[in-house]
Amino acid sequence: MTLHPEIAAVTDRIIERSRPGRAAYIALMDEQREHGIGRPGLGCANLAHAFAGTNEQRERLKDGRSMNIGIVTAYNDMLSAHAPYYRYPEQMKVWALEAGATAQVAGGVPAMCDGVTQGYAGMELSLFSRDTIALSTAVALSHNVFEGAALLGICDKIVPGLLMGALRFGHLPMVMIPGGPMRTGIANSDKARVRELFAEGKATRDQLLDSEIAAYHGKGTCTFYGTANSNQMMMEAMGLHMPGASFVNPGTKLRQELTRAAVQRLPEIGWNTNDYRPIARTVDERAIVNAAVVLLATGGSTNHLIHLPAIARCAGILIDWEDFDRLSRTVPLLARVYPNGSADVNGFEDAGGPTFVIRELLKEGLLHRDIVPVAGDSLADYTRKPDLDGDRLVWRDHGETSGDDSILRTIDAPFSPEGGFRILAGNLGRACIKVSAVQRDRWIIEAPCRVFDDQQGVQDAFKAGELDRDVVVVVRFQGPRANGMPELHKLTPPLGVLQNKGFRVALVTDGRMSGASGKVPAAIHLSPEALGGGPIGKLRNGDLVRLDAEAGVLEALVDPVEWAAREQAVAPPAHHGIGRELFALMRHTASEAEAGASAMLAAAGL
C-alpha cells in the first residue's frame, strides 16, 4: 500500500521545517561516532575505574572488542510499573554474555508516580521530572564506555525523559524495554462510579480506598489507557521495542524471553556489524509521524501533545499541534480502551493489541512502513504477535478480525473516521482537546465561566453547590512557568458528576488534564499561559465562553473593546516546600506547551 497523501504531506511539512536542525543533529551524531570518546580512547586509569565494580565480565571488558551495553534503569519498588525491573540487570548481564557482549548498569533515573502525587504538591515536580530524567540519562551515558544501551522505563514522564536524554547519544544503538501491565483488577466503570459517589459524599473514604486498591493491585503499569500505556503504543510504532512487547504481563516466561531478545539484539546492530542501527536513525521524521498516528488511532494520552514535540526536538525534528490536527482528521479511531471505552489494556491486548493496530493502519498507508526499527526489516515486522514455541520465542500472524470489536476494530469499520484530537484557537489563545471519549453533542459548550487559580478552589466550589449549573470551569496559573503544569485529574470526578446531572460543562486551563482525560470536554495546555500575560488571565467570573471542537474555536464572548482594556489577573505567590523551590530555574525558563514545555530544551536552543 502506498503512503496516504495526507500522511505524506504532513511528513514532508515536518521534514522541511526540521531541515536545518535535523542536519545539525545528524552531523553531531556522526561526529560522535567517528571522533567522539569511546573505550579505545580512554586512559587505563579511566578504564580501571569503569571495570572495578565487576569481576565476571572484566576480562571481556578489557579486550574492548565486544559491545558493552549500558543499562539505564527507572527501577523503584514504590511504583508498580517499575517494580518488575528489580531483577532485570542481573538477568540482562547473563543474556549479554550469552550473546558475546557485556552489560553494566550505567545509572538510574527518578520515576515518580502521578497517581501518588495527583492533586497534591508533589505534582508540581512531575513534568520537570521528565527533564531531570533526560539529564540523568545523559549523565549515565556520559562515561563513554558503552557501545549500546538498554532503557528500562515505562511510565508517564519516564519514557519521554529516557528518550530525550538517549537521543543526544544517538550514535549508539538502543532499545526500550517495557515491563508490561498489571493484570486486570475491578472494572474501570466500577472504579469511576465509586469515585463519583465519593465526590458526591455518597461513599466513605474506606470504600473509596478499597475500590482503588482493587484497581491498582499488583506489579505493572496501571491498566487504563493513559500516558504510560500510550507510551508503549508509540514505542512499538517507532520501532524501539522488540515487536509486540508492550502489553505482555510481568512475571511471565514470554515477558522474560522478550527482554532476553532485546538485550541480545543490541550486539547484532552495533557499529562494528553490517547492520548498524543507531537510535538517531531509528527516530527520524517518519518514526515521529508514526508515533502521532497510533496515538490518534487509539485515543491515547493528551500528555503526548507535549512529550512527542519534546522528544522530536532532541532529534532535531520540529512537530507542532497543527501536524497533530491534520493527522487526526485523516486517521480513524480503531480502539476504545478506558477511559475511552470500558476495556483495559489487557482486553486491548487480547483483542489484538498494538500489532493489530499497526497492521490495520499499514493496510491504508497511514503509517511509514520503511522506518529503521531495532528488530526486523521494517514496520511490517511489528504486525506479528510474540509467542512461545516451547521455550523458543517466535512471532506469529494473527487473525484478520478483532478478538473483540467493542474494543478494537479493523480499518474498514472504525469507531470513528477521525482520530480523537482537535486544536482550539481564538481570543483565549491556542489549546488542544481530546474528543475521543466525549459525546458528540458535547463538542460545543457555551456557558458563563467560573474562574479559579487552583484545583482545590474548584473542589470547594463543587462541594458548596456553586457549580450546579451550565458552566465553563477555568483553572489558570497552571502552566509550566507558573507551577510546573501539574495534571488536574482530580477534577474529573466532580466535573463528571455535574455533567451526569445534565449540566453543560467544560474545563479550560493552561494546565494539563491527564492521560486519563475522559468524557468532559477539556481545553487544555492553553498557550500562552496566564503567567506572563496569556489571555486566560483576562477572564472574569460570568464571562460567556465558547468551546467549539467542531469548528476548532475557543473564545471569550466579550466586547472586543472591553477585552482589550482589561488588565491581567495577578498571579498567586509561587509555592514552596516539597522541593518545589529547587525547580524555580526550570519554571522560569520553560518553553510553551506546544514546544514541549521544557526548560532544558529552551536553554539548549533545541
TrEMBL record:
The EC designation for this entry is 4.2.1.12
Q: Does the keyword Iron apply?
A: yes
Give GO MF terms, alphabetically. 4 iron, 4 sulfur cluster binding; metal ion binding; phosphogluconate dehydratase activity
Q: Which Pfam families does the entry link to?
A: ILV_EDD_C (PF24877), ILVD_EDD_N (PF00920)
Cofactor(s) for this UniProt protein: [4Fe-4S] cluster
Q: Name one GO cellular component term.
A: cytosol
Q: In which pathway does it act?
A: Carbohydrate metabolism; Entner-Doudoroff pathway
- Residues bound to [4Fe-4S] cluster are C155, C222
Indicate yes or no for the key word Iron. yes
Q: Where is the Dihydroxy-acid/6-phosphogluconate dehydratase C-terminal domain?
A: 407-597
Q: How is the cofactor bound?
A: Binds 1 [4Fe-4S] cluster.
Q: Which Gene3D superfamilies match?
A: IlvD/EDD C-terminal domain-like
Q: Which UniProt keywords apply?
A: 4Fe-4S, Carbohydrate metabolism, Gluconate utilization, Iron, Iron-sulfur, Lyase, Metal-binding
Matching PROSITE patterns, A to Z?
Answer: ILVD_EDD_1, ILVD_EDD_2
Q: Which reaction does it catalyse?
A: 6-phospho-D-gluconate = 2-dehydro-3-deoxy-6-phospho-D-gluconate + H2O
Can you supply a Gene Ontology BP term from the record? D-gluconate metabolic process
Q: For the Dihydroxy-acid/6-phosphogluconate dehydratase N-terminal domain, which residue ranges apply? A: 68-381
Q: Coiled coil where?
A: none
- The kind of enzyme this is, by top-level EC class, is lyase
Q: What SUPFAM superfamilies would the database entry show?
A: IlvD/EDD N-terminal domain-like, LeuD/IlvD-like
Q: What does this protein do?
A: Catalyzes the dehydration of 6-phospho-D-gluconate to 2-dehydro-3-deoxy-6-phospho-D-gluconate.
PANTHER family, per the entry: D-XYLONATE DEHYDRATASE (PTHR43661), PHOSPHOGLUCONATE DEHYDRATASE (PTHR43661:SF1)
Sequence similarity: Belongs to the IlvD/Edd family.
The name this protein goes by in its record = Phosphogluconate dehydratase
